[in-house]
Amino acid sequence: MKVREAVKTDMPQVLELIKELAIFEKEPDVVDVTVLDLEREGFSDNPLFTCFVAQLDEEIVGAALIYYRFSTWKGRTLHLEDLIVKEAHRGKGLGEALYKEVMKFAYDQGLKRVAWDVLDWNTGAIRFYERSGANVLKTWRVVHMDEKGLKNYIEKLNE
Length: 159
Prior knowledge:
InterPro entries: Acyl_CoA_acyltransferase, Diverse_Substrate_AcTransf, GNAT_dom. There is one protein chain. The protein is an alpha+beta fold. It has helices at residues 11-24, 35-42, 94-108, 123-131, 147-157; strands at residues 2-5, 50-56, 59-71, 75-85, 114-115. The radius of gyration is 17 Å and the shape is globular. The chain has a five-stranded mixed β-sheet. It has a single domain (2-116), classed as Aminopeptidase.
């Protein structure tokens, strides 16, 4: 197994991992992103994300997608959008290898924080994160405004 930075030609396999994650998270129909989106947004002159992949032989079996954020308290930080390992390959250390690569990247960049979300029912992931020294915040809530909500809100503003 090797962990490396993704290249553009990895994006079809990365998209398959994203779709598998959506199924795991009980949201099988929510993935709108395409291979073209991933290629365009991750490999342009101004890429919006970096992706690391875990590879066994020629197969991509895991991925971690990250991007920079700015905190008014900390400055430049990193967001771990998704850490995905194919179900058939879980429990073999691939997720931990990807996690280590992300944390090493953040450390090497001199960043003050790495942040990510975890579902409250994903107890295995929560235990892993806590063992690594991460703080799973109990008092903060993740807030999303989806496309439909955004549209409705803007339409109400324009009334």
